């Protein structure tokens, strides 16, 4: 009996740790919010997280100025929390459909949140983006030489499985 329990403990101890990065989109007025969280069991070292809106059938874009491709209200990129984990603040141009955040690292349980305006260009509900409209948009997480991706579901959440810890 002791041997069986000891074997399970050793197996679990010797198994690689895995991480998961979750990106949540929350529609808001006038600002939409993205929250990036390390929901896995290990710290991630240098990591790049790209939010890619191109997969949405609604032509989603970031609307960060009043003179570009967006509709009515615009909101620039604004960090709410977790900025200390970034190497630099990302540059987002009006009409962009991708945004990349470069992290120094992200410990287990840590998160970063920012606001920005997301508009659709397919004339569905231009200024408000529902969870269903972000379906198909994706998230790519690059850690070292590996890359993993996931798409947003109808719950407006994308969870990217990371095969191993990178810290």
Can you give the mean pLDDT? Answer: 84
Task: Report the helical percentage.
Answer: 10-25%
Architecture (CATH level 2) name: Sandwich
Annotation, overall tally of beta strands: 11
Ends distance: 36 Å
Structural class label: mainly beta
Level-1 CATH class name = Mainly Beta
Please state how the strands of the largest beta sheet are arranged side by side. 5-7-2-1-11
Beta-strand share of residues? 35-45%
**CATH fold title:** Immunoglobulin-like
Looking at the structure, what is the overall shape?
Answer: globular
Integer tally of domains: 1
Radius of gyration (Å): 18 Å
As residue ranges, the low-confidence spans are 3-16
SSE string = HEEEEEEEEHEEE
What characteristics describe this protein?
single chain; 167 residues; Immunoglobulin-like; 5-stranded antiparallel sheet; 4-stranded antiparallel sheet; 11 strands; disordered N terminus
Can you describe what's shown?
This protein has a single domain, classed as Immunoglobulin-like (Sandwich), CATH 2.60.40. Helices cover 10% and strands 35% of the residues. A hairpin with a 5-residue loop joins strand 1 and strand 2. The chain starts with a helix and ends in a 5-residue tail after the last strand.
